Amino acid sequence: MCDISNIIFGAISLTAEDTEGQRVIEVGSYDENGSLRPLVEHFKPSEYIGTDLKGGPNVDLVCRGEDLLSVFAAEDFGVVISTEVIEHVKDWRKFVSVLKHICKPEGIILLTTRSFGYPYHAAPSDYWRFELDDIANIFSDCHVLRLEPDSRSPGVFAKLKKPVDFVEKDLSDYELFSTIACRRIRDIREEDYRFFFFKKSTRAFSTRIVFVVAKPFMTTLRFFVDI
Question: Where in the chain are the domains?
């Protein structure tokens, strides 16, 4: 997934030095609104592999991001790209761990995601919101080369470099803001889901009731306006 802001950030952040001759993987590569692939391929990587949950434009391999280490070896890629995906992954810790481990030492990780204030957008689900401090903390075991907010809507853009002496940070107790629980939590519980979907169904029912009640008045108003 990608949009114009992601493409601009990629164009500003990625260089020929980062990508030329490197194996590149894009995790969550299905092309709906645009893709970084033409830009990256212009820099002549040795290979570009796009992965996603479903087949389609720009997808070379159908595979969950959390499962990529069952397909590829550790330290297999010089550039790892993931735009607008991590907020949709329930087990974000495993997803982050995989991104770090498939990246080779001194390789680049380019990541974008959504922050608090961005509306719920299931694709197929939507679990988390990340702030600048979250990305800085989660990737404190890497070198942060660029870290900035999305200027168009609530979100975070990051360019990171995996160090030669990489030691993975323990994130098991790290809490994130959840769109399901509406607060910062470590993991989403079953009761969080029940309450979330109860609120959604109640809101939808209330909207329907308002429409049904208001419809006769709207019809009458339209009649007088037409007169």
Answer: 4-185
